[in-house]
Automatic annotation (TrEMBL):
This is Phosphotyrosine protein phosphatase I domain-containing protein. One of its GO terms (molecular function) is acid phosphatase activity. It comes from Linnemannia gamsii. It holds the Pfam family LMWPc. Belongs to the low molecular weight phosphotyrosine protein phosphatase family.
């Protein structure tokens, strides 16, 4: 067991669909593995549209039907996040571009797309907000694959 925690922040545009789902899936995975004390996990959005809002009902329902708890209030990425978190994992290239523009000159977090960890090579976690339920189901499966692969990259099985 390590003496420090690994801090992970998941980021999408509004912090009500993809990033909240990624946060919930990740927390569920580390809890199942018994390593949740080794991590600090949160999510945020690059935009302030939904600050203070609950996750999208479809995102929450998708997690619930898969046995994953979701408890989050939307927030926007802050300048402090870039030095507080070890890993900032975003959902698509636009979020990555926005994060790089928002980042202070000196930051310590690793900024990359969560989908880079997808063993199926599906790099973009598409925004399901304006689409049918299938997009949320697809995101859940992708977040699960990416979580497992990311944890493996950190030395966890």
């Amino acid at each position: 067991m390590t003496t420090t925690t690994t801090k992970v922040l998941f980021v999408c545009l509004g912090n009500i669909c993809r990033s909240t789902m990624a946060e919930a899936v990740f927390k569920h995975a580390i809890e199942k593995r018994g390593i949740n004390a080794e991590f600090e996990v949160d999510s945020a959005g690059t935009a302030s549209y939904h600050v203070g809002s609950n996750p999208d009902a479809r995102s929450a329902a998708t997690c619930r039907k898969n046995g994953v708890r979701m408890n989050h209030k939307a927030r926007q990425v802050s300048e402090d996040d870039f030095t507080y978190y070890d890993h900032i994992l975003c959902m698509d290239e636009e979020n990555l571009r926005d994060l790089k523009e928002m980042a202070p000159k000196k930051y310590t977090a690793s900024l990359k797309m969560f989908g880079l960890h997808d063993p199926k090579g599906d790099r973009i976690i598409k925004d399901p907000y304006y689409g049918p339920q299938g997009g949320f189901d697809r995101n859940f499966a992708q977040c699960t694959r990416c979580t497992d692969a990311f944890l493996e990259s950190l030395g966890y099985e």
